[in-house]
Amino acid sequence: MRLDLPSFLRKRSLPKELLESGEAKIMHISDTPDNIYPFILNLIEKSRPDYIIHTGDLVDNIKLERRPELKERYAKKVRELLDILENSGAEVYIVPGNEDSEEVLKKLVRKSRIVEPGKIIRINNLKLALAHDPIQLNPPKDVDFILHGHSFRTLPRGLNGLLNVNFILLGSKKVIKVRYPDGTNFERGYKLMRGL
């Protein structure tokens, strides 16, 4: 799949360690409006993650919870994102968010695993707690990372996929954060974010 990448997305350089590390890696994203799908595709192609975890709101600019009449448009855009994620060669985990339709997701996923919010999963030597909204979590103390999105609050030991694209290098457990493109919060429906 090839999507034309707008120039403002091409200018962002990625950390050298992310591109040159021989370690297996997890890519964590959340709350993705459809206009950043080309950015996500480009990031996947450059970083080649072994695992991708999306912690909900796959089409965050379609507020399905409040606008259920947009379900058909939502399904079309979810298919577009799933094509990117599932054709990446990575193992994909999806935690449904409040703006997602589990019914649509279950119909459209081919290779991805749908994970119930609050679940603990293991990937290699890491124990991960996954949720969309941080309040869905009550993780045990031995969890290595807590992955979530939904709000601008980040839990202790947490990685918030709304704030950054988070990469976890599996061998070293090092976290590398990549900023979303400028304007992403506006596309999510946040008109003004001061201090971010």
Strands, helices and their partners?
Blueprint: H1 7-10, H2 16-20, E1 25-29, H3 37-47, E2 51-54, H4 71-86, E3 91-94, H5 102-108, E4 113-114, E5 120-123, E6 126-130, E7 145-148, E8 158-160, E9 165-169, E10 175-178, H6 184-188
Parallel strand pairs: 1-2, 2-3, 3-4, 6-7, 7-8
Antiparallel strand pairs: 1-9, 5-6, 9-10
Helix pairs in contact: 3-4
Mean pLDDT: 87
> Class by helix and strand content?
alpha/beta
What pattern of helices and strands is seen along the backbone?
HHEHEHEHEEEEEEEH
Number of domains: 1
**Count of DSSP strands:** 10
At the first level of CATH, the class is: Alpha Beta
User: Could you describe the largest sheet, including whether it forms a barrel?
Assistant: 6 strands, mixed
Question: Termini, distance in Å?
Answer: 32 Å
GO molecular function, one term: hydrolase activity
Organism: Thermococcus aggregans
Pfam families: Metallophos
Protein name: Metallophosphoesterase
Key descriptive features of the protein:
Purple Acid Phosphatase, chain A, domain 2, single chain, 196 residues, four-stranded mixed β-sheet
Report on this structure.
The protein has 196 residues and is α/β, with parallel strands linked by helices. The protein has a single domain (22-188), classed as Purple Acid Phosphatase, chain A, domain 2 (4-Layer Sandwich). The chain contains six helices and ten strands. The protein has helices at 7-10, 16-20, 37-47, 71-86, 102-108, 184-188; strands spanning 25-29, 51-54, 91-94, 113-114, 120-123, 126-130, 145-148, 158-160, 165-169, 175-178. The strands form two sheets. Strands 4-3-2-1-9-10 form a six-stranded mixed beta sheet, with no helix packed on it. Helix 4 (71-86) links the parallel strand 2 and strand 3. The N and C termini lie far apart (32 Å).
